[in-house]
Amino acid sequence: MTTLVPPLAVFLAKHPLVSQYDLTSLVEVWTGIDFIKQGYGLTEVTMACCVDLTSGEKVGSCGTPAPGMKIKVVHIENGQKLGPNVEGELWIKSPLRMKGYMGDQAASDELIDREGYVRTGDIGYYDHDGYFYIVDRLKELIKYKGFQAGVVGLPDEVAGELPVAFIVKQANADVTEKELIEFIASRVSPAKHLRGGVLFINEIPKNASGKILRRELRTMLKSHVK
């Protein structure tokens, strides 16, 4: 068994060099995409939180909680625990979670609640069988000098996804796609460069509580690509 990040899994599945090696001892590949074994985890709890042990019956699911993990879905506004098939933020309690951020108690308190649950920032739900599904991220809005930007991924066969920014300009603002791409590239790591480009729109779509509707951004992106 081995674990691979999605872009590497796709690369190895297609590259002709792989056929030159004997991989008969490789029984399973675990990754974060839906056609191979899936799982879900985050650094703050130091290990996988969910694992999918089915044979593909639960399409799109990242599995059930790993041993020792407690996972609940809560309302993003009031923190109330939610039932099956209702989307909310995933909070996770683990015996192996981080203690907090060194020298930053305020950030630690914001991340971990009084009961020891880590606020993941991931939006998801669980079904009646206890299988979890990750559908979105809670923090998606980027603000730069009055511009609002929502970032989504443009599917790419080699890289997996390329970041695309949807930009809402200030009134009378004069900025180009090239300027924004170069500005971002000068301030972030290469993985965060806007290799998918920039699209200017009139308004970032949000729900009644002010959360970005990233699914609508993805729909806009698909229409633009076509």
UniProtKB/TrEMBL annotation:
- Please, which domain of life does this record's source organism belong to? Eukaryota
Ranges for domain AMP-binding enzyme C-terminal: 148-211
**Localization per Swiss-Prot or TrEMBL:** Peroxisome
Q: Which InterPro entries match?
A: AMP-bd_C, AMP-bd_C_sf, AMP-dep_synth/lig_dom
Spell out the GO cellular component terms annotated for this protein, sorted alphabetically and separated by semicolons. Answer: peroxisome
Pfam families listed in its UniProt record = AMP-binding (PF00501), AMP-binding_C (PF13193)
SUPFAM superfamilies, per database record: Acetyl-CoA synthetase-like (SSF56801)
Q: Which residues form the AMP-dependent synthetase/ligase domain?
A: 28-101
List the keywords (alphabetical): Ligase, Monooxygenase, Oxidoreductase, Peroxisome
Principal cellular location given in the protein's record = other
Q: Which GO terms describe its molecular function?
A: CoA-ligase activity; monooxygenase activity
Report the sequence similarity comment from the record. Answer: Belongs to the ATP-dependent AMP-binding enzyme family.
Protein name as it appears in the record: Luciferin 4-monooxygenase
Q: What organism is recorded for this protein?
A: Operophtera brumata
